[in-house]
Amino acid sequence: GAAGATGLALGAAGGVGVYAAASGPDSGSGSSPALTTVGSTEAMFHGKHQAGITTPLQSRGHLIAFDLAPGAGRKEAAALLRRWSATAADLMAGRAPATDTGIARDAGPSSLTVTFGFGRTFFDRTGLTARRPAELDPLPPFSSDALDPKRSEGDLWVQIGADDALVAFHALRALQKDAGPAAKVRWQMNGFNRSPGATARPMTARNLMGQVDGTNNPKRTDPDFDRRIFVPSGGPQPWMAGGSYAVVRRIRMLLDDWEQLSLAKQEQVIGRRKSDGAPLTGGTETTPLDLDKFGPDGKLVIPDNAHARISAPEQNGGAAMLRRPFSFHDGIAPDGTPDAGLLFVCWQADPLKGFVPVQRKLDRGDALSPFLRHEASGLFAVPGGPAKGEYVGQRLLE
Ligand code: HEM
């Protein structure tokens, strides 16, 4: 199980069913015994779904959006996705092209995943407007938005994750080179998570506010997991079967303000204990929240505006999403505050049944919002995984 309370926190060790043991960085050269589990763990490129959605969080991530070059259309886009797919399949298996930069030499696959998506504008540029999913309609504006259009959206989106920073950067360079004259980088963001093995046992990750973050994610073993996260077959856009919609938000954390709060206040903002992520109503990390419990002071123990209360599916007509973020830190902003926060990436079969209703509610007065600023936004259609011999998006582009 990859997406569960502990699953998303796992590094190499926990990806049962997602990962297979790699044969080594040079496939068959016999060098694999030298690699630890972290280096040798391999995510599968081919399959029903693209890798990088239910794959356990990696310690390093790059999000990159590209725009097609003027004059590039469907033919160039198809050729690009073909090149990108071949590169992704090689790199995820720990194979490097002959003309390689050498950046990842000596390392194994290190759980590398490369995930490709299409933005709303892609479909007009390629003459495929009729096949653009309604799910790509622009997200509504929210009052807490301070979005930078230059760092938002894009024709194409690539998510890279790996448990080694050099492996991740290597993939980034290779894919950018593959883009050639067909597409130009529109924006890029770099993120990180805890390194596998840093904690005594696999645990749910913490974010830069120090909270245990990811506890109540849908779990792959939930009966409705697939229905909530992946697009079913038989829909109006058959090429999206097995795919998912990614909402990407660059969320700045106002850490100087946040860190002024007492521990008790911080815990009330979320509705969970900071130490172990357990609900304020008691138990352990995985104990359900008791949203109806009152304290001796006659007040709700989990306050009315607590983030975990407002975002819970029970409060949102069942709206659920799989949150799979990376933290970011890009130095100090001109005003002296840390340019840091969360590259929030969430996955759902339909953004109108996932991100949108929940964010609408959070936006109306969740206790966490005063400490956040949404700085960039993207919405991408991520097609299903490629079958052997297929490239990503082939069912749309061929
Ligand atoms: C839960 C933090 C933004 C949706 C949580 C939890 C924390 C947290 C600590 C409790 C543990 C857990 O269940 O994972 C944050 C931070 C954010 C952020 C620091 C911004 C930097 C968002 C946004 C959304 C969202 C933008 C969606 C619009 C959720 C959901 C849950 C959750 C659905 C699970 C609620 C439940 O079922 O109990 N978040 N969150 N969060 N958050 Fe956020």
Q: What does this protein structure show overall?
A:
The two termini are 34 Å apart. Helices cover 20% and strands 20% of the residues. A hairpin with a 5-residue loop joins strand 9 (326-332) and strand 10. It is globular, with a radius of gyration of 21 Å. Strands 3, 4, 5, 6, 7, 8, 9, 10 and 11 form a nine-stranded antiparallel beta sheet that branches. The chain has a two-stranded antiparallel ribbon with strand order 1-2. Helix 2 packs antiparallel against helix 4. It is an alpha+beta fold and 398 residues long. It has ten helices and eleven strands.
**Content-based structural category:** alpha+beta
Count of beta strands: 11
Biggest β-sheet: count, sense, barrel? 9 strands, antiparallel
Binned strand content: 15-25%
**Percent in helix:** 10-25%
Unreliable residue runs: 1-32
Please give the radius of gyration in angstroms: 21 Å
SSE arrangement, N to C = EHEEHEHEHEHEHHHEEEHEH
Helix tally equals 10
Overall pLDDT: 91
**In whole angstroms, how far apart are the ends?**
34 Å
Bound molecules: protoporphyrin IX containing FE
User: Any idea what the shape is?
Assistant: globular
Domain Dyp-type peroxidase N-terminal: 50-193
EC number: 1.11.1.-
Function: Involved in the recovery of exogenous heme iron. Extracts iron from heme while preserving the protoporphyrin ring intact.
Family: Belongs to the DyP-type peroxidase family.
